[in-house]
Amino acid sequence: MSRRPPLAALEGPCCAGKTTLGHLLLRDLHGLTIAFAPCYADHAGGGRFLPRQEAHSVSEREQALRELLRLEAGRLALLPSGSDLILADRSVHTLLAHSYALEQLTGIGVFEPSVRLLRASPLAAWPELVMYLDLPQQAVEGRNNGKFPPRSIYTDPGFNAAIRSYFLRLAGQNAPRLAWLDATLDLPVLARLAEAQLRQMVRNRDAEGAV
Fold first, then answer.
1. Taking residues 51-79, what's their average pLDDT?
2. Residue 184, CB-side half-sphere exposure with 13 Å CA sphere
3. How far apart are CA 1 and CA 13, in angstroms?
4. Which pTM value belongs to this model?
5. 20 to 30 A Cα–Cα from 99, which one of 1, 4, 30, 32?
6. What's the rounded Cα separation, in Å, for the pair 159 and 157?
7. Strand pairing of 85-89 and 7-11?
8. Tens digit of each residue's pLDDT (9 = 90 or more) over 189-206
9. Which DSSP symbol is given to 38?
10. CA atoms of 37 and 127, how far apart (whole Å)
């Protein structure tokens, strides 16, 4: 059986520009065939079809994760074959980051059960590369423009700070490789930085296959 193409994920707070950057790379990254996996909300047909993030118990959070894992499998199943790489708008690390943030905000111990559930699931696709688009909270609020309503958890300063903390923790691990990108940069500059990371990932996978 052929191996799955290398998987890279765009991560970061809402309004960081992940979807915009993903579509730009899909259009302009010449010489590589990219399969683009839309974010969970886009795949589901809108955020209203996603399970609530504001879980009040471990079991409620685990139920939400199982629903999100079904979306994970669904969005990847629709990708064309024969691609050089898969670029995903968010990944299972989003799901873990949200569990981590919920635990920080509520004190409910949802993070470790979330890790166990996702690690045990055959539906979870773990990226080799995570590109985190770092955006200050003030910029998140400035870019929102009514996309998320007032008091939304996705624009909450404490929630976003905890999300960022999760990815800072992830940067200290051996895998996945994490690239920290400044989302306030002009889009063409950001795209060049992301392109360099993707090309390096493909070279690394090719080198491993040649051994």
1. 96
2. 7
3. 36
4. 0.94
5. 4
6. 6
7. parallel
8. 999 999 999 999 999 888
9. P
10. 12
